[in-house]
Design goal:
Layout lengths: L12 H26 L38 E2 L1 H19 L3 E12 L2 E2 L3 E8 L4 E8 L5 E5 L7 E4 L11 E3 L19 H15 L5 E9 L5 E9 L10 E6 L6 E7 L12 E11 L22
Antiparallel strand pairs: 1-9, 2-3, 2-4, 2-13, 4-5, 5-6, 6-7, 7-8, 9-10, 10-11, 11-12, 12-13
Amino acid sequence: MAVNQTSADRPEQPRRRRIWWLVLGLIPLSLGALSWWLTAPLEDRITDLPSQQADSDILPPPESPSRKLPVWPSSTSQGDPAKKLLLESAEITTAAISRIENYTAKFRKQERLSGRLGPENTLQMKVRNRPFAIYLKFLAPKAGKEVVYAEGHHENKVIAHNGDWTRKLIPRLAVAPDSAVALADSRHPVTEAGLVHLANKLLDFRRKDIGDPHASTILDRITDSEGRPWLRSIHTHSINDGSRPFARVEIHYDPQTQFPLRIFSYDWPAPGETGDLLLAERYVYDDLNLDAHLTAEDFDPANPDYAFMRY
């Protein structure tokens, strides 16, 4: 026997379809509004280049150099003589690097993240030492991503955008340098990048090496695969007491300036683990230009040569 359905019993399919299409229509509008909000105009323009900022963590430049670089040994040197010579070199070069106003370089990095060694990344780098500012443009293997940070501007946040299709959804982000988003594909915040920060870290470790029987230092000279000569120091540690982040560190220095331009760091082995140490991070500065003429616009995301603008 047939049962008649009342209007109240009939499925509300047409109404549900309308609601569903309305929701689907709101999604692109919401994404567009989010993207527009994320790329709001950058009102905090960088228009000045002050020579020094009091709260900067970069050392102020000494008035004048007072010491000459030590003579690097022509053959292998190790033990206390090597530690003392390297400490003297680090003190002089750190002061010299701190006197540099700004520079450019081609920067290469390779890092192990979550146990996996990633590919080498090549970036174009611009750096101003005081107050600290940095611009990075990724060249390979994925080109297009840009990062800029200028101390004292944009609430001390990193401004960045990707170079792939995700930029269509999120054209630009402003995040804290130590946030999870900023560190998603990097071991260190961008505020620790650059030669001054590297030189200061190495100087601190060279001071720790003095009198430490568990810290081994070897100095020698090498020639790389392209025929370029380098001064080299190798540092190994026998006890993992938490004061040394790596079991082995190898550093290559420019023969003329003794600036540290290549650093290779290897992780501590897991308990019971044998064999070769795993590379944790590798950083290389190529084509270093210490006479680069940079202006405030080089560290301004509104620079028309950059791609931080709305789309």
